[in-house]
Amino acid sequence: MTFNAFLSLLHGAGVTVSVSMAGIALGVPFGLVLALLRWRRVPLLAPLTTVYVSLLRSTPAVTLCLLIFFALPVIGIEIDALSAAIATLALNTAAFNCEIWRSGLTSFPREQVEAARTFGMSGTLIFRRIIFPQLWRTCLPALVNEMTLLIKSSTAIAVIGVAEITRAAIRIGAQTYDPLPPMLVATGIYVVLVLVFVGIQRLTERLYGQAGGAR
Amino acid sequence: MTEAATETRDPPVLEISGLTKTFGDRIVLDGVSLSVARGQTVCLLGPSGSGKSTLLRCVNWLETPDQGAIYLSGERMGIRKGGVVPMGNGELARLRMRMGTVFQHFNLWPHMSVLQNIIEAPIHVQKRRRDEVIAEAEALLENVGLSDKRDAFPSRLSGGQKQRVGIARALAMKPELLLFDEPTSALDPELVGEVIAVMKTLSQGGSTMLVVTHEMGFARETADKVVLMDAGRIVEEGEPEVFFGRPKTERARQFLQRYVSA
Amino acid sequence: MIRDVSLIWQNADRLLDGLTNTVILSLVGATLALVFGALVAIALMASNRAVRLTSRGLVDLMRCVPFLMLVYLVYYGLPRLGLRFDSWTAGLVAIVIYNTAYMAEIIRGIWSRLERETIEAGIAFGFHGWKLVARIVMPQIFLAAAPMIGNQLIQIIKDTAFLTIIAVPELTHAANSIQAQYFIPFATFLSAVLLYWALCMVVELGVFVVERIAEKRR
Ligand SMILES: Nc1ncnc2c1ncn2[C@@H]1O[C@H](COP(=O)(O)OP(=O)(O)O)[C@@H](O)[C@H]1O
Ligand SMILES: [Mg+2]
């Protein structure tokens, strides 16, 4: 395996990481919005969210990615492979993040909310000043755990030709007729990536205590 | 019953000699010697933490003693003939299946029904015939008054019922020796009687039993011999009339004062 | 839209063939992974330090690797070592290897939390070795593990979609080939998504039933 091949694997790793990060950056807040809709039992939207979460949790990322990439143009929304990839990961992880946020919300001590209300705080103020600062801490370990899973499922975007790690490895293997070395290097890169995330998760668990994952 | 045992030349069913066990630097058993003859019921008394459970666990070889020896009807437990090489799990199992143990917290297998709990070891450890074992198990359930709970699962039983199943499970092994570790301590007071009644019947029926208990009434009426343990040692042993009526040691008097109040 | 639906209806047998493959791959894969996972869990709980650390290392490594990477390793990598599978078998092998690690970890987790007492009762009644594990330990583990095993089965069902990349004729592959032929991506992939959804619902229903059975046995 040449140095150039190694560089293109690293480039693939860069794609994996940046697409995953974009998916996380969109999916974590979107998941919180979904969780709030369900938690506040917003009419119409809350049951829709329930369906969304159930549907997305049982949809393979590969299938979702194909759906987004091929179907959106048909209904008039042009989308390039990279955007489709990011949308796939964001929509997918949002469903799992919603469950994490929601379990944090439902286990949030009622007394604190009631106490805040006696001081005349409004609903949004209570959420911003009382609930959220504690909520994100309790949810963080589970959220990071979900990020680790997202990194692993991000390989799904290879199906629409995004040159992430696995696809880079396959291409190098096809060019050199020696698929094993680039695959082993790619595997090594993944191990490092996942270990970094597991490390972060351990750290957050130590700092903020444990919270169960949704998957 | 004691005379009957001394007349025969059989070795005692259980012979413990010079048993010592430490956990870390804590001496839990300190040279305990004790024997139970065929047909005898021996009650082991003593304050909590005195080492009674550990002694029973050593008899089962669930704990490995540091020193001393245990003989089951003359056969050395845990150590092969020659006295050095420790037994493998298979050899231990062959000795263990000759004893029946009744646990303080019942330890029934939760994934099996009452009947399955009773027939499990006779069929799969002792390799006895299934139909024969089931027939015996049903008779045992009848004896402990639980025929109607044959197909119930342990989680649906009261403590007293669980313990009676525990006893039936031990009896189904046709054991030479029955070991009881505080069989009524985890029960609500009103359920103690039903278990004690079963144990009395067993004792009178000639079973060989070593019973750790705080039920002084049971010990006084049923035991052939009472043994008092304290801090890992046997401090007094004797016939119940003597032990309860005219204890020889100061320690026994203190113990009785605390535990036999009314 | 009506044309889309009627085209899907005409090609329903292709989707169903795909679904059948997805179900077979998932069920066979999960069952084998559960069996091997139980064996690996025994290694994870072994008293021998070397056995324990080796199996721990392998399980942790497997859990760091994305499923697709393992599929590639089995399908493109193993032939270099003289092991050649067709794509369907390669997919199944990858599912089994990958999920053995996850099942082992599920079983070990529950095993280590299992109450020591019922196992000791087994030992006191003369159980040992294989029989102790098979009759006293494992049944309790499986009853407690049912929800987690169900979750893993859902994960496996979703992972089978990756196998379209090596052209295994599973559900997503069938959908993709239908949409490529008629250019009706929305209807086909949505049908596939709904079928996956239904499949996962069935698994969840199964878990619910097992839960009901397990409830009184713990
Ligand atoms: N596995 C163990 N490790 C360390 N200490 C133990 C263990 N088992 C028992 N002990 C200690 O041994 C002593 C005797 O315990 P035990 O035999 O259970 O007493 P008893 O049954 O008479 O109440 C206690 O102090 C207990 O803490
Ligand atoms: Mg005790």
Q: Could you write a compact summary of the structure shown?
A:
The complex is a heterotrimer of chains A (215), B (262) and C (218). With 215 residues, chain A is an all-alpha fold.
Map the helices and strands:
The complex is a heterotrimer of chains A (215), B (262) and C (218).
Chain A: H1 3-39, H2 45-57, H3 61-74, H4 81-106, H5 110-118, H6 123-153, H7 165-176, H8 180-208
Helix pairs in contact in A: 1-2, 1-4, 1-6, 1-7, 1-8, 2-4, 3-4, 4-6, 5-6, 6-8, 7-8
Chain B: H1 2-7, E1 14-23, E2 26-36, E3 41-45, H2 52-59, E4 67-72, E5 75-76, H3 89-96, E6 99-102, H4 114-124, H5 130-143, H6 159-171, E7 177-181, H7 189-204, E8 209-212, H8 216-222, E9 225-230, E10 233-238, H9 240-245, H10 250-259
Chain C: H1 2-10, H2 12-44, H3 49-64, H4 67-77, H5 87-113, H6 116-124, H7 129-159, H8 171-182, H9 185-215
Helix pairs in contact in C: 2-5, 2-7, 2-8, 3-5, 4-5, 5-7, 7-9, 8-9
Number of strands of chain C: 0
Number of strands of chain B: 10
Main beta sheet strand tally, sense and closure of chain B: 6 strands, mixed
Unreliable spans of chain B: 1-5
Query: Which blocks of ≥5 consecutive residues of chain C have pLDDT under 50?
Result: none
Bound ligands, each once: adenosine-5'-diphosphate, magnesium ion
Give me the number of helical elements of chain B: 10
Helices and strands of chain B, in order, run as HEEEHEEHEHHHEHEHEEHH
Number of helices of chain C: 9
Number of domains of chain C: 1
Query: Proportion of β residues of chain C?
Result: under 5%
Q: Which strand order do you get reading across the main beta sheet of chain B?
A: 6-7-8-3-9-10
Structural class of chain C: mainly alpha
Q: What would you call the quaternary organization? A: heterotrimer
Main location (chain C): membrane
Domain ABC transmembrane type-1 (chain C): 19-207
InterPro entries (chain C): AA_ABC_transptr_permease_3TM, ArtM/GltK/GlnP/TcyL/YhdX-like, MetI-like, MetI-like_sf
Transmembrane segments (chain C): 23-46, 58-78, 90-111, 132-150, 182-210
